[in-house]
Task: structure prediction
Amino acid sequence: MRLLLDTHALLWWLTDDPSLSPAARKAIAATSNVVLVSAASAWEIAAKVRLGRLPGAEDLAADFRGFLSREGFTTLDITADHGIRAGLLPGPHKDPFDRMLIAQAQAENLPIATNEQLFESYGVRRIW
Result:
């Protein structure tokens, strides 16, 4: 299975945070799965580091691809189609990072590891 990680799931995986659900942890750890991390997560992490809202993630922002490589994760780049889909998503949800993850999950037919139930209202399969 190919699995997309929400930004918080990535952060909790990297820090071994108990907030990551057992189901998500199992799916991420399964060597048969391809774990994808969106370029939107790189953007979100860098923005929050710059704003001082993500203390301790400076190294991750500085070497994002290196962290992913060491974990065996793959970057999911943002395409123009993803951008159009994210921009046209209905509903009041305004978080641009979540909207992009939803659009990518829809376009690529990916389940997403996230604790945000809102993703399901967009038809995205959630692993949590």
